[in-house]
Design brief:
heterodimer; A: about 325 residues; alpha/beta; TIM Barrel; 5-stranded parallel sheet; 9 strands; B: about 300 residues; 4-stranded mixed sheet; 10 helices; globular
Chain lengths: ~325, ~300
């Protein structure tokens, strides 16, 4: 096997090489904060939906091949309660978020779906279901992308303009997203503090990286315990980027889940962080579509050169 | 294909006694009470990757807990989490060290530097120290003795080419094999290895009939604990480092010691956690008689004062 045989986007370990572009965010903001709420509940693996295994979680002795009503209940809390609480938090503090929405999840909570754009939030596609794209064939994946668009257009009134897979893309995702033609960008990358352009075939393609670092997912595996863990983590991240933003404004993605941050304790931590960030001048709470439009308009020149990626030679 | 004909060493003898509660009275330069060794592991791009012909994608030390992944498939999420380290984290750390006027030691994997030549050139350019962290970021205990010897040779050659000088120290991924120390000593150009976690001070040991210097490292004062979830918010690390410092500074009134701080670009290079290192450096610099030392400085000091 040679590098040429490897499918998927080439790796880029170099990026902006310590010289990121001097970004001028709207209003001269020193930092762009992208609040992301993952809307997944109801589209996860489920025996009731004919899946061979259920969504993992709960006690380890319990088989993955049987319904776990405990785990199902944890997820339901997200769409039933957490969702509305987070919407209230955002309204109280007058900030807008981006929903990473799984299509099937919205089909099962229509009022919630309608409310997203109505309250001024942004909605991108997080897949037809909350599923691992690396397990699909290229044809299946193309079909699931198509279904996701049709469904989200129907439930929210507009087609999604951004794409983000569960956890990570397959080696085909970026090509299929570009081929579909209606997306402005994807967020299937964790490798930068700023958006960048890359090439997909002969087409320029925008990437707005996301983060599993500033992400409440760490509650799920006990890396975070107390809500203050998350709050302190976010504040430290903000402090650093705000300082750097004096000369080089950056972007901060914050990943949230209805079934995690939608609980009162963690929603309170989120509220406190947002209030903290808002107490500084020059802070832009941006939806991903705002960032995409800004980048498309002002930073066409940030196409990263195709890096040489030497093969390993002994 | 290299033939496995050479028997493995039985490995270094265990030493559960060490300095036996009576460590040497070390006099660091300028009578410092503590030597702080900032270590930055430069691994990104040399970890196991399907794209490099490895059977599996890397699973360790990222932003998620270890999750199963099908053999033979690229894990693009993991790959880009690693890329963050060399693209962004590296430069953030360099800038911070410059700001505070401290030097670090890079534990560099040969192949990783080959894939980011500008970063490689910058290391020594900014006054930092570079030692070998292996040809690739790999578990050398899974190599035959011959393969390991060859990988050590490749690492030395590669790092010399990318950074301009050969490495003078050696540290394996996680743990050495039973052969590593002998092979490092046999190679002849290394001043020491850091494949030990068993002391607060350097020490000499015998490899065959040859005296060999060990400068122990630490997985306790190490940001790797974020990767396992043992540390949560940046403050966990900050507090941990300050407590280590406080105790060693106290002991250093009579018996100066060494403090390792292990860092990874893809972990500590994120804005949030970089604040912990920043706060710690500021804290340590607010005390008198604190020496931020590179490993080569420690090695040279030990060789000239504590042979």
């Amino acid at each position: 096997m040679t590098i040429a045989d490897i499918q998927g986007p080439p790796r880029d370990l170099v990026g902006y090489e310590g010289n990121p572009p001097k970004v001028v965010w709207p209003g001269g903001a020193r930092i762009a904060i992208s609040l992301v709420v993952n809307y997944e509940e109801g589209s996860e693996l489920s025996i009731g939906d004919g899946d061979a295994t259920r969504e993992p979680g709960g006690p380890h002795y319990f088989p993955l091949t049987a319904r776990d009503l405990g785990v199902e209940g944890h997820y339901e809390y997200g769409s039933r309660v957490g969702y509305w609480r987070l919407l209230d938090v955002f309204d109280e503090l007058d900030v807008k978020c981006t929903f990473y929405a799984c299509a099937v999840a919205l089909e099962r909570n229509r009022d919630a779906a309608v409310e997203m754009r109505k309250r001024g939030h942004d909605v991108i596609s997080h897949g037809w279901r909350w599923e691992n794209h690396n397990l699909l064939t290229r044809e299946e994946e193309r079909e699931h992308i198509r279904r996701a668009i049709v469904s989200i257009t129907e439930t929210t009134g507009e087609r999604p303009l951004g794409w983000y897979c569960k956890y990570g893309p397959s080696v085909h995702t970026r090509e299929l997203v570009a081929e579909e033609g209606g997306f402005l960008y994807d967020s299937d990358a964790y490798n930068d503090d700023l958006p960048y352009w890359t090439m997909v075939g002969s087409k320029k393609h925008l990437v707005i990286p996301y983060s599993l670092q500033t992400n409440d997912g760490k509650f799920n595996w006990d890396a975070f315990g107390s809500p203050l863990d998350f709050e302190k983590h976010l504040k430290a991240n903000f402090d650093c980027l705000y300082r750097e933003g004096q000369t080089h404004p950056k972007m901060m993605s914050i990943g949230l889940h209805l079934r995690l941050s939608g609980h009162p304790a963690r929603a309170h931590a989120l509220h406190k962080f947002i209030a903290y960030a808002k107490s500084f001048p020059g802070v832009w709470f941006a939806r991903r579509i705002d960032i995409a439009n800004h980048w498309i308009e002002h930073h066409q020149d940030t196409l990263l050169p195709r890096v040489t990626y030497p093969r390993i030679t002994a | 294909m290299i033939k496995d004909s050479e028997p493995n060493s039985v490995g270094p003898a265990r030493d559960l006694v060490g300095y036996n509660g009576k460590p040497p009275k070390v006099t660091w330069p300028n009578n410092a009470r503590i030597a702080i060794l900032l270590v930055v592991n430069y691994e990104e791009g040399s970890e196991p990757a399907v794209g490099d012909g490895d059977p599996n994608s890397e699973r360790a030390l990222s932003e998620t807990n270890v999750r199963p992944w099908p053999a033979g498939q690229r894990d693009l999420a993991m790959e880009t989490m690693y890329e963050y380290g060399s693209r962004v984290g590296y430069w953030r750390l360099l800038q911070m060290f410059d700001e505070f006027g401290v030097k670090c030691t890079f534990y560099a994997c040969g192949v990783a530097l080959e894939r980011n030549l500008k970063a490689a050139a910058e290391m020594r350019g900014r006054g930092h120290d570079v030692i070998s962290h292996g040809w690739r970021w790999e578990d050398v205990a899974l190599l035959t003795r011959e393969e390991e010897r060859e990988h050590i040779r490749l690492a030395v050659k590669s790092i010399e080419a990318t950074t301009g000088q050969r490495p003078l120290g050696w540290y394996c991924r996680s743990r050495p094999s039973v052969n590593t120390r002998e092979l490092v000593a046999e190679e002849g150009g290394f001043l020491y290895d850091s494949d030990a976690y068993n002391d607060d001070l350097p020490y000499w040991t015998m490899v065959g009939s040859k005296k060999h210097l060990v400068i122990p490292y630490s997985l306790v004062n190490n940001d790797a604990r974020f990767g396992s979830g043992a540390f949560g918010p940046p403050e966990d690390f900050d507090e941990h480092l300050r407590y280590t410092f406080d105790r060693l500074y106290h002991e250093g009134a009579t018996h100066p010691k060494m403090m390792n701080v292990g860092l990874h670009m893809r972990i500590i290079g994120h804005p949030s956690r970089s604040e912990a290192v920043r706060n710690f450096i500021k804290y340590a610099q607010s005390f008198k008689d604190v020496w931020f030392a590179t490993r080569i400085e420690i090695a040279e000091h030990w060789m000239s004062h504590h042979p």
